[in-house]
């Protein structure tokens, strides 16, 4: 059995070389595998696949093409049907500890657990379950919120550009009456305004860069869910979905934190010019053209979706399903 488990290692699925048939390898024959059986946790060549589909003990097993199975994320590929400690098949799921367990595990470590449930009941229709739908919907909601946040931050940059352009035009109107001395202060003023503008745009751009990175990660998790629904076994899908439940909450908390820490606050720029009547005496009395101030307006975007059902999920601390 240990030899079979080693040949059927999920780690082999990530190898850049051609995947070999695990059954044939036991006979020192190296045929190319074409399908993967998640129940047996083995890669099979076309010949072994035929025997596999005819044998009584395996004829009901579902197989997927190797190329399709390899599309699953490494964390999903790492999910096994059997206990690493006892080499027994997982039969129950312990809600208290958030992990699957075999018959021996129950005797050794779960004697006091009263919330054990049969895995066969839990994984039934798991790909169309409320949990799967809720996780996928939560990730899509996060992605939509990220898109709204990015649009808002981009519009803020355009607003700053418009404000800068407007003040530059006001400055040019004043220049018509001031000549050489006003030109010198104009240069000083524009440098200061450009510095403020760059500083604020840089702050906004850092937020945009960060949410772009988050957006890519959320899209990847959505692709992982789609792949699991199509190619993963029911157990892998069930545990994979359970492992992603807090990903959605983390992304929602991230968006909420952006708002709370002021990263989504609108940055505006204002210029307070001296009275136009006073500009007539600018050569003798005025040495500073104007005062540039900035204003931060609290973000009004809603970054936390309503009626989130994720709070009722329990943590699965033993399984790390984050694929960065």
Automatic annotation (TrEMBL):
<protein>
    <recommendedName>
        <fullName>B box-type domain-containing protein</fullName>
    </recommendedName>
</protein>
<feature type="domain" description="B box-type">
    <location>
        <begin position="19"/>
        <end position="66"/>
    </location>
</feature>
<keyword id="KW-0479">Metal-binding</keyword>
<keyword id="KW-0862">Zinc</keyword>
<feature type="coiled-coil region">
    <location>
        <begin position="157"/>
        <end position="228"/>
    </location>
</feature>
<dbReference type="InterPro" id="IPR000315">
    <property type="entry name" value="Znf_B-box"/>
</dbReference>
<keyword id="KW-0175">Coiled coil</keyword>
<dbReference type="InterPro" id="IPR047153">
    <property type="entry name" value="TRIM45/56/19-like"/>
</dbReference>
<dbReference type="GO" id="GO:0008270">
    <property type="term" value="F:zinc ion binding"/>
</dbReference>
<keyword id="KW-0863">Zinc-finger</keyword>
């Amino acid at each position: 059995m240990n030899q079979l488990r080693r040949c059927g290692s999920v780690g082999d699925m990530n190898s850049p070389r051609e995947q070999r048939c695990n059954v044939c390898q036991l006979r020192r024959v190296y045929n190319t595998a074409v399908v993967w059986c998640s129940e047996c946790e083995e890669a099979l060549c076309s010949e072994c696949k035929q025997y596999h589909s005819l044998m009584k003990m395996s004829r009901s097993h579902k197989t997927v093409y190797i190329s399709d199975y390899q599309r699953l994320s490494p964390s999903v590929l790492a999910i096994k049907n059997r206990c690493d400690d006892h080499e027994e098949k997982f039969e129950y799921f312990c809600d208290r500890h958030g992990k699957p367990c075999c018959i021996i595990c129950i005797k050794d470590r779960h004697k006091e657990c009263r919330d054990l449930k049969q895995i066969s009941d839990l994984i039934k229709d798991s790909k169309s379950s409320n949990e799967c739908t809720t996780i996928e919907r939560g990730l899509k909601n996060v992605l939509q919120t990220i898109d709204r946040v990015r649009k808002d931050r981009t519009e803020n940059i355009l607003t700053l550009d418009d404000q800068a352009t407007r003040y530059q035009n006001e400055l040019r109107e004043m220049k018509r009456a001031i000549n050489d001395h006003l030109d010198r202060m104009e240069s000083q003023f524009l440098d200061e305004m450009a510095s403020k503008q760059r500083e604020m745009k840089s702050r906004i751009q850092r937020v945009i860069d960060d949410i772009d990175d988050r957006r890519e990660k959320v899209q990847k998790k959505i692709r992982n869910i789609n792949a699991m629904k199509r190619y993963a076994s029911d157990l892998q899908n069930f545990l994979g979905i359970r492992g992603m439940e807090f990903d959605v909450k983390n992304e929602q908390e991230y968006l909420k934190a952006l708002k709370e820490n002021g990263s989504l606050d609108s940055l505006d720029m204002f210029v307070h010019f001296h009275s136009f009547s006073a500009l007539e005496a600018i050569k003798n009395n005025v040495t500073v053209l104007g005062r540039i101030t900035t204003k931060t307006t609290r973000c009004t975007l809603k970054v936390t979706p309503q009626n989130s059902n994720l709070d009722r999920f329990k943590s699965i601390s033993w399984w790390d399903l984050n694929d960065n």
